[in-house]
């Protein structure tokens, strides 16, 4: 599967063997999805890992054509359908792979002499599988959260009853873990405040970037213009994270700075939707925009290396403090100046402050986004774009993160590091 969510487990699989852990991966056979990335499959096949797949009774497998069509619907319709799915399927619409995965997992644990179970979510069905296998085998279980569960910004419950059911399921499932891993201290605080009965062991293992991706990036497809500030957005737009405030800020910046339209180019990789093109047309920005559609991860990283600067948006509300975007860490790995449309006081602000090569503005304030964009343009014009703190960034190297995870596994298995 494509998208940023697959990077974390893939890179753990890639680098854990360096620290004497050899993954056996249990996964469903491919079903419908909005994007696939064959370059990631090549990388997976080159890992020191065993891959075991099972048939899965999910909507993505049983109704593949319909699910593929849904990805082309307007974002508000997709959001409504997702909400309805939580009314019918808890913990998520992948629950149909729980039973075959548990059956296969029992067999693999015995056959492969498994030492530990690691599950990553979403989908939260993965943690339900791990909890069931824990009951059967009493092996140590580490549950990894790339997003919150009960309070996830990506879940909209049809009724309070559905949320109460999910709360009970989360509590019962997480209770089966020996340790949970989360992306940042805010996730840690939320889980501990909600679930900690004095026994929950919660560790922070952040997202990261793979230096090899940048060393082996290859030839970029980005149509770079040396006479313009080339600004790249990498990834798809989901839920509240839409490019509207950014595009409106570009229009306002052009109105404030005549001639700017001839010195700015906006690159998008991941794919723009119909409503995005309509807004671009209304704002008369067509000549500035280059859309490359969905690219393989390898090609996307090559373009990151080529652009002048990058931007992202995290628009889940001022009370949301955790990091939601895996792309932020790939941006950090690129060393490029980052324009972050984020709220104050969260983990993303802390990261950008430490990174140093950044500009920030609230995602709901077009005026402030305009000011940040013009500040970046001024620095580019003066050849004084800020430099990233590369030494600080090294802590997010995927190799180091895999070592942290391996150390955790060793403690749970009473192994010596080696």
Could you describe the 3D structure shown?
- This protein is an alpha/beta fold.
- It has 2 domains: 4-208 and 398-413, Glycogen Phosphorylase B (Rossmann fold, 3-Layer(aba) Sandwich), CATH 3.40.50.2000; 212-394, Glycogen Phosphorylase B (Rossmann fold, 3-Layer(aba) Sandwich), CATH 3.40.50.2000.
- It is built from 18 helices and 12 strands.
- Strands 9-8-7-10-11-12 form a 6-stranded parallel sheet, with helices on both faces. Strands 3-4-5-6 form a 4-stranded parallel sheet, covered by helices on one side.
- Strand 1, helix 2 and strand 2 form a beta-alpha-beta unit.
- Helix 1 packs across helix 18, helix 6 (98-111) crosses helix 7 and helix 11 packs across helix 16.
- It is globular, with a radius of gyration of 22 Å.
- 38% of the residues are buried.
- The mean pLDDT is 91.
Features:
single chain, 418 residues, alpha/beta, Rossmann fold, 4-stranded parallel beta sheet
Secondary structure layout:
Layout lengths: L6 H9 L8 E5 L9 H8 L4 E5 L4 H4 L1 H7 L4 H14 L9 H14 L5 E5 L3 H13 L3 E5 L14 H15 L4 E4 L2 H11 L6 E3 L6 H5 L13 E6 L9 H13 L7 E6 L4 H9 L6 E3 L5 H10 L2 E5 L13 H8 L3 E4 L5 H9 L2 E4 L4 H16 L8 H4 L4 H16 L5
Helix pairs in contact: 1-18, 6-7, 11-16
